[in-house]
Amino acid sequence: MALARIRDLDLSLIDNRVLLRAPGRGIGAKVPTLAVAVLSFCDQPRTREQVVQAFGPPGGQLYDGLAELGVLVDPDAALDTPVFFQNFASLDTHRRMLADRLRLDAYRDGLNEVVTPDSVVVDAGTGSGVLAMLAARAGAKRVYGIDNAEVLEHARAVVEANGLAETIALHAGDFRTAKLPEPAQVLVTETFGALAYAEGATPDLQACLANNGADAVVVPSHVELWVAPVGPATRQAAFAGFATYGDLSFAPLEEASRHRGIMTEVPADALLAEPVRLSRREWPRDSDAFTATARFDIEGAIGGLCAWFDLQMSPGVRLSTGPRAPLTHWKHTFLPLDPLEVRGALELVLRFGPPANDRRGYEVEGEIRTAQGVVPVSWRVR
Q: What Rg, from alpha-carbon coordinates, does the chain have?
């Protein structure tokens, strides 16, 4: 059997050995340096015999070990991220999302606007089944809910309890590869994390559309990213508790957090300037990798950026997750900076996209330009 290396893989050299990390699979291990060559060779599916021919018996032994570790897999499973889906098996996760009535109201109103009695709807990542049921209540002819998490068994009971089992068919599996018995006219999904894109669903949804209805209407249809600078007080609040406890210092944790987006509530009065829209992109047909710019006029110190997203559910329905809108379960994304004094123009040049080693994460990097100089920045969110 031919195996291929998994796609979300990070390699680093430590003490003359290679550290392998795959966040989406929960893998971390040290292996010999020859593993780099074997993994590179297995970028395309290879058999053990092919590896032995290329690298000798040690290569064959590594091939076996990497397969046992879960780094070499069936090619159809190379993009899988099983640990990621385990996060959605918890009922507490779904309790929190179901409590976000603003989110549910927006999805309900969007579906009511686009679903017709002839609509076949696919709910990609159905979870508790709530969006599938809202589509059925909107009058859909048929609804297919697809999910990879164990919560699907609870969703079956929920659908049955609400008398919708004749309209809704639930399928266990990856909506990236699922092929339904009939094409869909509507795709609905709530696969949004920090900065909207942090769950890495864009390519999976593109594949789902290609397999099940390339021209389907998507709910939501567009994603907008917004940003505004905030003061040092927001930074201090976000980092509270990291500095010390008695004579114990946690400064390294604070240092590491400088390059992580922090999900928190940012009050509207913390914004130091009017927000700027960084992008408006068709979901999920546009790429989740892009460059954006913004300019603000600031007089004083900033401690970071507040970023959020808005969702265009349908032509007449919009949901904002910003500080000036009612709070959703997504809250806001705070991107911390070392306190920076600004006198005049503050310009952002930021590149957004998934990191190479973790397609379920999302990365922001670039620079901040002021009259005082240029500051390189980078953050990762999940």
A: 23
Tokens of 342: 């600004």
Give the distance, in angstroms, between the CA of residue 239 and the centroid of all CA atoms in the same chain.
Answer: 23
Give the model confidence (pLDDT) of 212-233 as tens digits.
Answer: 999 999 999 999 999 999 999 8
Q: What's the pTM? A: 0.83
Helices (H), the chain: 34-41, 48-55, 57-69, 82-86, 91-98, 101-114, 130-137, 152-161, 202-212, 232-238, 251-257
Rounded distance, CA 347 to CA 295, Å? 4
| DSSP E strand boundaries for 220-331 | 222-230, 244-245, 248-249, 262-264, 276-282, 290-314, 317-320
Cis peptide before 284 (omega within 30 of 0): yes
Instruction: Confirm if 130 and 98 have CB atoms less than 8 A apart.
Output: yes
pLDDT digits (tens, 9 = 90+) for 266-304: 999 999 999 999 999 999 999 999 999 999 999 999 999
